[in-house]
Write a structure and sequence with these properties.
Layout: H1 8-16, H2 42-66, E1 73-78, E2 85-86, E3 89-90, H3 92-107, E4 110-115, H4 136-164, E5 168-169, H5 175-180
Length: about 190
């Protein structure tokens, strides 16, 4: 396991090596209407659930490793999706993984700050959406449905930050500036 450090030079060097990878939600937060991409079937739910539980387990491993250090510690989590409710039903596996991580963080005096890197979302119909065959009423409901979808994907992030005393940053395209105004996480900036 990588040793923890407070050496800013090493931290900035590590940040310079961070590269964009395959996102769990894709380039856009929403599949274009009529594209047939990224449905909400059982396979998609299983994939999403597996990714969330695996991510939470990896973070719990880091939190458990930090427990031996004195004082209060912080973890900054960048993620687009920790959904606790799927199709109106609580996802028990993800909810349990969130609770285990929250409990481990509380026992170890670790604060989890969650950041949704998607920034401000445009929920309106775009040029990529195919609305042919859709009623005007259905098209008019799309922005509200997309807004609700984003809220659902942020549920787990909100719970983790809330239960561990951290911050939940979302709906901002300038989160570094937002962090600078918060002394609890200003240490990651200059």
């Amino acid at each position: 396991m990588q040793q923890f450090t407070s050496d800013k030079r090493l931290l900035y060097a590590a940040l310079d090596r961070v590269k964009y990878g395959a996102s769990r939600v894709g380039v856009s937060s929403f599949a274009p209407l009529g594209s047939g991409i990224r449905g909400s079937g059982a396979i998609d739910h299983l994939r999403e659930e597996s990714m969330a539980v695996g991510t939470l387990g990896a973070i719990r491993f880091v939190v458990n490793a930090m427990t031996g250090f004195p004082g209060r510690k912080s973890v900054v989590l960048f993620t687009e999706n920790i959904r606790l409710i799927f199709r109106g039903t609580t996802d028990e596996m993800v909810t349990h993984a969130v609770q285990q991580l929250s409990d481990a963080a509380s026992r170890g005096s670790v604060v989890i700050h969650a950041i949704d890197p998607r920034g401000m979302q445009d929920y309106n119909i775009t040029a990529a959406d195919n609305t042919a065959g859709m009623s005007k009423r259905r098209v008019a409901r799309v922005p509200a449905q997309r807004a609700e979808e984003v809220v659902r994907t942020e549920d787990g992030m909100f719970v983790l930050a809330e239960e561990t005393g951290g911050l939940f940053l979302h709906d901002t395209n300038d989160w570094p500036a937002h962090c600078e105004r918060r002394p609890t996480i200003a240490m990651v900036t200059t």
